[in-house]
Amino acid sequence: MSQFKRIRHIPTSEKLADIVFSKLRKIKVEAPSGSKKRRSDQSFHKTLYFRQFRYLFPELEERLEKIAESFPIIEELHPFHIELIDVLFGIDKIRTALSRINNTRKSLKSISRDVNKRLGMSEFPSESKKARSEALGRVGSTISKLKKPLDTLIDAKIQLSRVPDFNLKQHTIAFAGGPNAGKSSFVKLVSTGAPEINSYPFTTKELVIGHRKRNKFESVQLMDTPGLLDRPLGERNVIEMRSILALKHLADLIVFLYDPSVQSPLSLKQQLSLLSEIETQFEDIPIICYINKQDTLTKAELVEVRSLVGDHKAISTREEDSADLEIIITEIIDSLPPKKLIFDKNKDKKIIEEPGKKRVKKDKIEWIFFDEDDSED
Ligand SMILES: Nc1nc2c(ncn2[C@@H]2O[C@H](COP(=O)(O)OP(=O)(O)OP(=O)(O)O)[C@@H](O)[C@H]2O)c(=O)[nH]1
Ligand SMILES: [Mg+2]
In terms of residue numbers, what domain contains 293? Predict the structure, then answer.
């Protein structure tokens, strides 16, 4: 199971206060039987309040500890996830949220010490009551100050749990191109991936992973990405940035699809410029280009398209052409470069080389954080 799916349920600050205070109210101490007078005995109040606080502080401590500890340590994450978190929220925002949780644990300890001391020294029920209500007020305001950090972590958990699980030992072929180019159709026809397909652009908003057997022993991952517009990196939205980061960190090979049809939101010139941006940004990743939707073109039009974008193979990602697509995907898989080196943190940070593969530069090392065998789903 992905580390992000392991992050515990995170309550809002209101919910957290609601849970602990309503449980606290249910904690009762049997009143000494007989007289009403005895009920107001100082020992009765002390016992009740001590018992309530003996529940409250450890309960809050445990809940906050579990939230903080279920969040992965940022420094240990795969660079893809680190950059993704940075793009989505800003690494510092998550760090601040986690450190606020930890500081709150310390503040609660100090409130706990104070109230226990005051209760211990109180001689009259009125003193005990005052100590209790002041301590509860402090706890309440401490919890309400967690509103922002908890909301940030809830948002982070939701967003990160949408990132599909990648097996970093497997090759990843990423499908890229402008919106509506047929990327999802391609992935869906040749792999186990089931991305949504629609006749309008910007259908795919998340990364989608499909698998395909390469041979008896190996599978490859086919990654469908949201469509990219022809614009500079600084102007890209979060959805496009997710694609860009996935291409940068995960792709061993990029399949770029041109959409020459009249429905394409990008002109061929814009698609050409998009490709050239991808080539510049990911110069070490091989790219194979195809002219998709060939069924929409006459022979003469195809010649014209090729004169503009280059002499690429023309394909069609319609269901009726899936036999041809099978041949194409086999060719693509056959042209995969050797898998990048991997870095196995379970093996004393030793670099592992695949047999027969050449050593590559240190900055290409990848971290294994997810193992297929690890899956609990
Ligand atoms: N005529 C024709 N239509 C195609 C072909 N491939 C895909 N389409 C259609 O093009 C539209 C977009 O296909 P998708 O696979 O969703 O395209 P996409 O690149 O994933 O689009 P986004 O996720 O929005 O970027 C759908 O209506 C498909 O049916 C093709 O080879 N020929
Ligand atoms: Mg799509």
Answer: 172-337
